[in-house]
Design brief:
Rossmann fold, four-stranded antiparallel β-sheet, 36% helix, globular, disordered C terminus
């Protein structure tokens, strides 16, 4: 299998006044093509920091991250932005939809921003159909349920045909049934379409359906037994 992401000995520290805070301490991790990987841990464990680093939204203090074989730490901000647009799709806990735009327009937006080629309308409609919202294209976020808004957010992540989907607590604001449907969709993205899917979460339901679960505590990865004991 192809390694979509390789994280090697990554640390991330922040300065808070005179204090140095370590968010990640020597993390190494691989995400492969067709794998649904969950990184599980409580708030403050470093999981969102790790997601932001893999998503090229931030750079590590030390160590290296490679996406499809390309080391990203030394890339210019513009090249990292190009990599995000071409390789990565993001799904956020709070959806991050633009409330005055329709579902169609929210999904279309990244294609317009990054000036992606091809038939935009066809790609947007296909992404909405894939998440079961073809009949909600003209609805705005306030007119949709939480689960439907999350589906729009997933369609927006998929419309660029990313190699890797990154999701930050995607089931946290959803009821059990709707959360299960979202997880089914992530499984299909990995197994049916061969994408890499990385979810950071503290939801035990995600742990049960992911292909692999890696625990994180205090900025360090922990083994499966330790992760289950701390959950």
């Amino acid at each position: 299998m192809i390694d979509r992401v390789v994280v090697k000995d990554v640390t991330k520290t922040y300065r808070l006044g005179t204090l140095t805070v370590t968010a990640l301490a020597g993390v190494s991790l691989t995400v492969r093509t067709g794998e649904f990987l969950a990184v599980a841990g409580p708030s403050g464990s470093g999981k969102t920091t790790l997601l932001n680093l893999i998503g090229c939204l931030d750079t590590p203090t030390s160590g290296e991250i490679a996406i499809d074989g390309e080391p990203v730490s030394a890339l210019s901000p513009g090249r990292r932005a190009d990599l995000r647009a071409s390789k990565l799709g993001f799904v956020f806990q709070t959806f991050n939809l633009i409330p005055v735009l329709t579902a169609y327009e929210n999904v279309e937006y990244p294609l317009l921003i990054h000036r992606r080629g091809g038939n935009v309308a066809t790609r947007v409609r296909a992404a909405l159909e894939q998440v079961g919202l073809g009949d909600r294209a003209t609805h705005r976020p306030p007119e949709l349920s939480g689960g439907q808004q999350q589906r729009v957010a997933i369609a927006r992540a998929l419309v660029g045909e990313p190699a890797l989907v990154l999701a930050d607590e995607p089931t946290a604001n959803l009821d059990t049934a709707t959360g299960g449907q979202i997880l089914d969709l992530f499984q299909e993205l990995a197994k049916g379409e061969g994408r890499g899917v990385l979810v950071v979460t503290h939801d035990p339901k995600v742990r049960r359906v992911a292909d692999r679960v890696v625990g994180i505590r205090d900025g360090r990865l922990v083994d499966g037994d330790e992760e289950k004991a701390a959950a």
